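4.2 Preliminary Data

To establish feasibility before requesting continued support, the project team ran the inverse folding procedure on a target of 397 residues. The structure was first converted into the token representation described in Section 3, and no sequence information of any kind was made available to the design step. The complete token record follows.
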């Protein structure tokens, strides 16, 4: 999002965007410090572009999550996420960054029209370094969110995404709430079906009545709510306390009232002190609630976080054994699974969701195709096998 906006800003200030790094005057590297692997990728990218004559500007999360690592390889210009106005010192001759309207395209592709309702996060998850980079909560006024979402009709996108760094915390800083925002957005009038990203379970439960009401009116196409673990003890250690029984009931009821709603989640495997039994609780939660789509991440201790300092870190080999066991259980229960080589992150999707995606009218059914299937050819092959046999169990990646 920031990079798309930055592109517009640079052009309005008279700069051309070029793909060829050899001829660039400036190279802006945006960095993700979510887990150690993404930091490593960002640092490799910075090392790679250092050979060009262009001035390099590093922005994104890494200046906040891994400053020492960054300093060890780079001494050039750094602009933190929370001080983007510093771009004006270099480029803002005609237009200031704050005056550029938000761009609604998402990095995932042009099919998604994003309304970012807030930035920043007020939580304190014990494993998270991202919150240092995203800073304090800043919510847009409700009227602005409403006027932005109306622009979807003029776009070429086919999905509305409502997001924020912690979307459920929307409004805490301006006397509003996510529950009332959902009711205010003109979803029903416009026949929108929205994807709600990054909805912490505690906010899903707090504003459940509004969310259930929206689901009953079929205005929600997808909700991504990261459980991170099925064990209440582990969730407490993560400082993400939520009543898992209540959450389970909520997930099941949402699917019942709106069967086409896709529920997504994230699970961390091998959090400090996690036992085999607690891993089984995570697996059970996913299978019992028939989560449609999700990510599994191996716990990666980020320097400076509370979780990284915890004693009883889980052995790396055990983490791998556990994630492989989780994958086996998913496959045995009709999920497609794809493991990303570099980050070892796993994406999973219910086979039925994946296979119905092309044929159903609801664009959110296509989500797994956008994310799991590596290429169009792979999608076509899967679909063909499914059409001919109704079974793709032998083709699971
Ligand atoms: S909700 Fe937790 S994990 Fe997400 S950004 Fe906030 S502190 Fe980090």
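Position-by-position output of the design step:
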């Amino acid at each position: 999002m920031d990079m798309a906006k930055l592109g517009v800003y640079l052009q309005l200030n008279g700069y051309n965007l070029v793909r060829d790094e050899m001829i660039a005057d400036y190279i802006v590297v945006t960095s993700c410090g979510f887990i150690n692997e993404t930091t490593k990728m960002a640092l490799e990218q910075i090392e790679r572009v250092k050979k060009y004559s262009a001035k390099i500007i590093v922005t994104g999360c890494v200046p906040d999550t891994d400053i020492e690592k960054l300093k060890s390889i780079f001494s050039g210009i750094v602009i933190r996420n929370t001080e983007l106005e510093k771009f004006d010192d270099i480029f803002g001759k005609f237009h200031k960054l704050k005056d550029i309207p938000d761009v609604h395209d998402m990095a995932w592709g042009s099919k998604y029209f994003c309304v970012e309702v807030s930035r920043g996060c007020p939580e304190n998850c014990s494993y998270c370094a991202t919150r240092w980079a995203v800073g304090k909560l800043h919510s847009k006024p409700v009227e602005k969110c409403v006027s932005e979402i109306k622009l979807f009709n003029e776009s070429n996108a086919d999905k509305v995404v409502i997001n924020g760094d912690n979307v459920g915390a929307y409004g805490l800083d301006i006397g509003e709430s996510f529950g009332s925002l959902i009711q205010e957005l003109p979803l029903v009038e416009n026949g929108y079906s929205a994807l709600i990203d990054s909805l912490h379970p505690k906010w899903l439960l707090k504003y459940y009545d509004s969310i259930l009401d929206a689901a009953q009116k079929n205005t929600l196409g997808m909700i991504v709510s990261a459980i991170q673990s099925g064990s209440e003890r582990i969730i407490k250690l993560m400082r993400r306390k939520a009543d898992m029984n209540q959450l389970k009931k909520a997930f099941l009821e949402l699917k019942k009232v709106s069967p086409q709603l896709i529920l997504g989640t994230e699970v961390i495997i091998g959090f400090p002190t996690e036992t085999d039994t607690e891993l089984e609780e995570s697996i059970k939660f996913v299978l019992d609630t028939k989560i449609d789509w999700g990510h599994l991440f191996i716990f990666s201790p980020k320097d400076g976080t509370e979780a990284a300092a915890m004693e009883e870190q889980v052995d790396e080999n055990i983490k791998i054994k556990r994630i492989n066991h989780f994958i086996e259980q998913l496959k045995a229960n009709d999920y497609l699974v794809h493991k990303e080589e570099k980050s070892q992150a796993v994406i999973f999707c219910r086979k039925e969701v994946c296979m119905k995606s092309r044929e159903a009218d609801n664009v959110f059914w296509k989500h797994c195709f956008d994310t799991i299937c590596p290429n169009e050819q792979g999608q076509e092959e899967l679909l063909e096998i499914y059409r001919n046999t109704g079974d793709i169990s032998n083709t699971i990646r």
